[in-house]
Design goal:
2 copies of one chain form a homodimer. By secondary structure, the first copy, chain A, is mainly β. The first copy, chain A, has 2 helices and 12 strands, in the order H-E-E-H-E-E-E-E-E-E-E-E-E-E. The interface between A and B is large, with 77 and 77 residues.
């Protein structure tokens, strides 16, 4: 496994140094939405130290059941504390991070002090449905880059100000930052929600 | 983007050369199923030139909505021609391949001559629901390695002998090879199905 990955990475480096452009959006009537990832623009969505690429998305590509993101966080930057009523799988491609994770069954109706789990390059983990979580790039110098895979797109994210905010006070952010360009302006504002999916 | 990836890869190489083991299966009552990918055994499932790791799976990890696989094919090896009634996203990590892809709406009730799409390292594409497809490692010397993400696990794969086999004759392979260890022996055999999900 180790050798395979090393070989993989050396070849990707070679490839990135030498590749030319190619793009196929359709093959006859069959849309595969083929893309060269190194040619897809990253977007910070106005957030310092952040960049995002939707590899396969609900609004962007018509996905109905899964969505895949490539996300990069500069040293010291982090996601908000948030939850969503979908499954999420992470694959850490680069860097080290601390995953802060609370249960959705805290007796006090707020997340409470989270578990702290160190995660690192070439590791994978699953965030259970509706568990409040936050990922921090804890490396001094190195970017954190990961793939995040969610079910039930488009994602409806509830954001907490801190770990002691009641679940019912978490704010719905829908559409999420990177989906804002795809929807009507009057549906793109933050607003409170009944939090009834927790 | 190019520089980010190059940096990523160099750091992963360093990391893989120097990392030590770590594994956390639970954090209190909160199972995140954290794993170091380089410590997960690959399994060929008796198929020459093939190896598979389920990063997040229905049988393996209790996933209900998405499943993520890391797959490796030796030069000249390939998937069967197959279809499944779920979404699938590919991310090519290493190597070059030809994607053979047919529509699910061929007038003759069989896949017919497929489109041929060259794919390569650091590319991504989406296979539409129920479209018969096959991925061949077309590189002479280099392994093909990719992440495959599917919805609606566990996957129910219908396998074709060739591109001119009627959709209704494709054989259901359930459970798929890597899930066989998780189920009762009497449900693990190949069998025909009504093909009623096409």
């Amino acid at each position: 496994m180790m050798n395979l990955f090393k070989s993989l990475l050396l070849h990707i480096i070679f490839f990135l140094s030498s590749s030319s452009s190619s793009s196929i959006n359709n093959t006859g009537s069959t849309a595969i939405q083929f893309r060269n990832i190194s040619e897809i623009p990253q977007n910070s969505h106005g957030i310092a130290g952040y960049s995002h690429i939707t590899l396969a998305g609900s609004f962007a590509h018509g996905m109905k059941e899964v969505e895949v993101w490539l996300e990069t966080f500069a040293p010291g930057s982090h996601t908000p504390i948030h939850r969503h009523s979908c499954e999420e799988v992470f694959i850490i491609l680069k860097g080290t991070a601390t995953l802060f994770l609370a249960s959705n069954s805290h007796p006090s109706h707020f997340p409470g002090n989270p578990h702290q789990i160190p995660v690192f390059q070439n590791s994978t983990f699953i965030v259970p449905v509706n568990h409040p979580h936050q990922l921090w790039n804890t490396h001094e110098h190195e970017d954190l880059q990961f793939l995040a895979i969610i079910s039930r797109p488009p994602v409806k994210v509830f954001i907490y100000d801190d770990w002691f905010m009641p679940h019912t006070e978490a704010k719905l952010k829908f559409p999420i930052f990177w989906d804002e360009g795809f929807v009507q302006p009057n549906t793109s504002k933050d607003h409170h929600d009944h939090n009834d999916d927790l």
